[in-house]
Design brief:
The longest helix has 17 residues, at about 45-60. The chain has helices spanning about 45-60, 85-100, 125-140, 170-175, and strands at about 30-40, 65, 75-80, 105-115, 115-125, 155-160, 185, 190-195, 205-210, 220, 225-230. It has about 250 residues and is an alpha+beta fold. The protein has one domain: Alpha-Beta Complex (Cyclic Phosphodiesterase, Chain: A), CATH 3.90.1140.10. The strands form 2 sheets. Strands 1, 3, 8, 9, 10 and 11 form a 6-stranded antiparallel sheet that branches. A 5-stranded antiparallel sheet has the order 2-6-5-4-7, with helices on both faces.
Length: about 250
């Protein structure tokens, strides 16, 4: 099973001494950040699917499995945006979350893209899910973020096979054909940042902000690290999970 993420970085910097700036040798902060907007299944839904996958974690350790805590359903993939745009997105998306009810969803079935990317599908109140995604995308465009448009086909990416392995994802997807998870309510809309393309290590995800759906409240700066072996989500099936709203590449 994929390991859980852990952090030990306190984020503290050494104090400046003798009038020397403490950050003189530190790299400049990037001017852009890679972000997407998503829903996340509750732990109970993740654990249920993880239990279904447990046997293949052992038989297919060579796959690049996404960490369970990183599983999400992408509504809009924004790519690299100016850091200065994030506060504008926060304020605008808070209103979107407040205006939409919580869709009742379930994880269901499985499939693959290009023989290499393994996913599970999303079932349930898809009308509400599509309405939320459409509002998110309209709001993002209103914030000046321009990205390629593709229809939302919800799915949740589980793993990626290595180049040349064109059978593992298909085999596992066939085994998921009869899987139907218990229904759950999507509780929050998440604005998520990642370090994709900035590091040779594992991709890290973190919630920048999360808002309860149907409420004006928000959880600002929720920074639980979320790492995965995925940078983008691919184009998805009709009923499958992590679809990018504007670019359905692996996420």
């Amino acid at each position: 099973m994929p390991p859980s993420s852990a952090t030990g970085d306190t984020g503290r910097r050494p104090a400046a001494r003798n009038g020397t700036k403490s950050d003189v040798n530190e790299p400049a902060q990037p001017a852009t950040i890679r972000v997407f907007i998503a829903l996340a299944p509750p732990d109970s839904a993740k654990e249920e699917l993880a239990g279904e996958l447990r046997p293949v974690y052992d038989t297919h350790p060579h796959l690049r499995w996404n960490r369970i805590e990183d599983w999400h359903i992408t509504l809009a993939f924004l790519g690299e945006v100016p850091v200065a745009t994030v506060p504008l997105l926060r304020g605008s998306l808070a209103g979107v979350a407040a205006a939409h009810r919580r869709p009742r969803l379930a994880l269901r079935g499985g499939g693959e893209f290009d023989g290499r990317v393994l996913w599970t599908g999303v079932d349930g109140d898809l009308d509400a899910l599509h309405a939320l995604a459409a509002d998110v995308r309209t709001t993002v465009r209103g914030c000046g973020v321009v990205s390629e448009y593709r229809p939302l086909r919800p799915h949740l990416t589980l793993a990626r096979a290595r180049r040349g392995d064109l059978s593992s994802a298909s085999e596992i997807a066939a085994g998921l054909a009869g899987f139907t998870g218990r229904a759950w309510d999507a509780e929050r809309l998440h604005l998520v940042g990642s370090n994709a393309g900035r590091s040779t290590g594992p991709i890290r995800y973190r919630d920048i902000t999360a808002w309860p759906l149907g409420s004006g409240e928000h959880l600002d700066g929720a920074s639980t690290p979320r790492s995965a072996a995925a940078a983008q989500e691919p184009a998805s099936p009709s009923g499958g999970g992590n679809s990018g709203a504007s670019a359905n590449g692996p996420r």
